[in-house]
Amino acid sequence: MRFLSYIYFLITSIRNWLYDNKFLKIREILGAQIICIGNITVGGTGKTPAVQYFVRELSKMGRKVAVVSRGYRGKRKHEPLIVSNGKNILVSPKESGDEPYIHALNLKVPIIVGKNRYKACKMAVEKFSVDTIVLDDGFQHRKLKRDRDIVLIDATNPFGWNALLPKGTLREDFKKAAERVSEFIITKSDLIDERELGRLKRFLKMNYKKSVSIAKHGVTALCDIAGNAKPLFWVAGKRVLLFSGLANPLNFEKTVISLNPEYIERIDFMDHHNFRLKDFELIKRRAKSMDADFIITTEKDLVKLPRDLKIENLFVLKIEFTMLENNSLRGLI
Q1: H or E segment at 268?
Q2: Of the candidates 267, 264, 277, 225, which has an alpha carbon nearest to the alpha carbon of residue 245?
């Protein structure tokens, strides 16, 4: 693993050097400000609710906003692809990928996916006349010039085990990557104690000389698969089975623990997992064996479940990104 991480380090370092020294071209979109919400580790930092927070706040400021994403694991014939025109969702989750589809469900702005983010951003400007683009998970996409790179740091594992992939979860060397960062936001701050949070904040400020904001991902609702909200206190004292396809399912469990269930078991699938019939049979068997009162999944996983799925007492936990310190939108007006 250490050898493979070293090879990965060499590849990413050479690539970044080529961009930094202008051997590889960085293209600019005219007519729109581009704000990237990304990370330096693989998954688990809470980008999806963070992107939605920034879109809503920018819209309140009078900005005409679109979201552009790679649309990871989306199976589509055409690139770039309009997922939503701001009024209607035009494609399926299988075509768009799960995160863009969640954006389309929760936001009334254009959502566009494409491996070539330059073409996708150009489409957003030309087709929808937007003046601001929120780039979802594009920090490593060096081909596109950004006005601001906001990087999320997961409070529970801020530095990806201090190793690059595959030994750790870092996508690139943290110290070098930090040079490109406009601002850090420490996410999931409610999942660590205040002393540890203070140490992390001071470390980032002192070592990287960047602005550091604090955010939490709080539970806002427990919903059935039809979208009907149920009281959160229902979970207290109950036996709960969790299932998800997340990069960091432990944080999902910690969030549910905050609702005070009596007992929890967890089934973990690979990140961005596409569910099959055998998966649902496994979930049903585990729920029966542990006498579960509730089966809870995430909003990200819900969009990939069949609409006619029949699993008794299945609920989704909705999470909201909330800024606790500083104002990341300062200077964007």
Answers
A1: strand 263-268
A2: 267
- pLDDT on residue 330: 64
Cα 310 to chain centroid, rounded: 28
Q: How far apart are CA 62 and CA 78, in angstroms?
A: 31
Contact call for residues 333 and 277 (beta carbons, < 8 A):
no
| CA distance linking residue 15 with residue 163, whole number of Å | 18
- Pinpoint the alpha helices (H) of 21-150: 47-60, 93-96, 98-106, 117-128
Entry field: residues in the chain: 333
Cα pseudo-dihedral 215, 140, 138, 276, rounded to 10: -90
Question: In the beta sheet, which residues pair with residue 230?
Answer: 222
Paired tokens of 106:
């929760």
What lies within 8 Å, CB to CB, of 198 at 6+ separation is none
- Count of C-beta atoms within a 10 Å radius of residue 227: 11
* Helix, strand or coil, per DSSP, at residue 140: coil
Cβ(112)–Cβ(128) under 8 Å? no
Closest CA to 332 of 169, 150, 116: 150
H or E segment to which residue 280 belongs: helix 277-289
Q: If 0-12 CB within 10 Å is exposed, 13-18 middle and 19+ buried, where does residue 10 land?
A: exposed
The residues of the chain scoring below 50 in pLDDT are: none
Q: How far apart are CA 157 and CA 44, in angstroms?
A: 9
User: Which pair of structure tokens corresponds to residue 84?
Assistant: 């939503």
Mapped onto helix, strand or coil, the DSSP state of residue 18 is helix
Q: Which residues contact 106 (CB under 8 A, 6 or more apart)?
A: 52
